[in-house]
Amino acid sequence: MRAKEGCLLFRHCAVAGAGTMGTGIAITIARAGIATTLFDLDAAALDRARAQIADFLAGSVRKGRLTEAQGAQALDAIRFSTDLADLADCDVVVEAVFEDLGVKQSLWQRLDDVCGAQTIFLSNTSTLSITELAAASRRPERVAGAHYCLPAQVMKLVECSRAIQTSDETWQRTLAFVAATGQQAIETRDRPGFILNYFCIPYHNDVIHLIEADVAEPADIDRAVKAAMGFAMGPCELLDMIGLDTQVRLSEAMHAVTNDPRAAAPPLLRRMVAAGLLGRKSGRGFYAYDTSALYGA
Questions:
Q1: What residues are labeled active site?
Q2: What is the per-residue pLDDT across 87-105, written as a single tens digit (0 to 9) for each?
């Protein structure tokens, strides 16, 4: 579906949560020519998101991926808000808040009071049950899952999943929305981790266990994986991009619903987060981004 067609079907959409993922999702929507509201209760988070979006779009123009006019239009399409009432007329709201069932359910309940009957609610959860999330809404038939692959503004994949309650109309509009924003929808069942995180959460924890056991340094693990498997990024590089605090939350959520020992957050991961070594967002994780030095503690 072309962007102009998407604009006709989806005139105003929103993303709730201005973290790394929410910021990237907002870019994908605005880039398609759709009016976009990025909502967060934290004004400082919105300021960071505004700067990140401007930098990314400017980089896309420099690399020839967008014309100057397209970059300017995408930036102009986004407004930033701490007022949930600004989402009242949205066709779609994508939830991208913390991976916490209570936080997400509370947001649905507040959106029930704000948004019109036509609004579709999509959750970017990667581990929680879409059916359980939908049950918190008074309109569960209008809730579905749309898990974006990080970084959303670069990667095309969106794992889409139906709740038991999701209506056929909501499901078709969900798939149409993903297509209208230039992303690729993959249909999955409502299962913990869907496709990617079913593999990636335990895999990343295995990598951290290797480091904890002093089997190899992060850089050597990354080089081995990239050389052998052809991956663009090594697991430690990717963890630093995702955020080590996010990996803890993903692990806790996945372990809670599966009891898989490999999904449990490794002690080293928890120590690093406690020390404020969160990855790119803090300037240091497995790598130090000011000096490119390895994390060696």
A1: 126, 147, 159, 197
A2: 999 999 999 998 888 999 9
